[in-house]
From TrEMBL:
GO terms for molecular function: electron transfer activity; metal ion binding. The keyword Transcription regulation does not apply. It is a single-pass type I membrane protein. CDD domains: Phytocyanin. This is Phytocyanin domain-containing protein. Residues 26-125, 143-242, 262-358 form the Phytocyanin domain.
Amino acid sequence: MASALRVFGILLLLGITLGPSITLAKEFVVGDEAGWKLGFDYQAWAKGKDFRVGDKLIFKYRAGSHNVYKVDGTGFQQCIRPSAKEALTTGYDVVELATPGRKWYICGVAKHCEYGMKLVIDVKPAKYEAPRSSVPSTYPAGREYIVGDGAGWRLGFDYQAWAKNKVFRVGDRLVFRYPVHAHNVFRVDQYGFQNCINPPASEALTTGSDTIVLTRPGRKWYICGVGQHCQNGMKLFIVVFPAQGQNPPSSWAPAVPTYKPREFIVGDYAGWTLNFDYQAWAKGKDFRVGDKLVFRYRVGAHNVFKVDGNAFQYCTKPPANQALTTGNDTIVLSTPRNQMVHLWCRQSLPPGHETRPH
């Protein structure tokens, strides 16, 4: 009798945000095209490179032929291997440079380290790109606008009609008045305004008398992030003109640092597997639109489904034709908010066991 199949669900929930980060993180493939191998001068490769906190090292090699250990200076000089459980062994090991200082890496297979298969680098603090700005350090004293006038900031009010024909200038102030806890104010971009996407809660203004100084010319967007208030029309869009006597900059849009999408190997060197805490892995990571998730696993052992919140909670499997099954599945994060990813894998059970979600 054919064995029944039991289905296990491994779940990954990601919070994805819009907007660029200003850290200029880079990825370095160790050895470039040569990868991680014997007979290569890794110190010559590293010479002149500017490694910074937030950058990533990627060690590429044929799995089983080599590995990667993070060691200290003594371990580097004397080729001392840490315990085997500390080895990175996937053949595509990603190491994020989380702190400044000197970092050492060796191959722990046979005598590879003794034959020169090791790397030492110096990591500098993170590098930031300062947005260009033509805004002066002080602003002219401007007008104060109580948003909504006597109505204040509330549901059931047409804020675009209120803003129409008003001339907002750099130095003016918007004051949002409302009962504390009933509403809040978020500054968002155009996409967040149109789709009512709340930024992180830490960015909310919540005092009930929130004052925003208009420091730059250009388009500005504000929403209430409580409940469905934004969807019900509680949002404001204005255009800010230069202060009287100022020349407008070449572009009125606020300067935005360039954001380079990143690639996240799900589970890092563990890959997409059973008995791994993917929520712990995802915690604290800043996933953004344009980033990529790469699910690496042994073909036939696992797969990947993109699901909604209900299916995520109850481990409901979509149709089989929606499964990603290549063993190196790449998903581009194309929309903000939460994304649910679901792995289904099968394990044989003794005859008579019923197939059911776990």
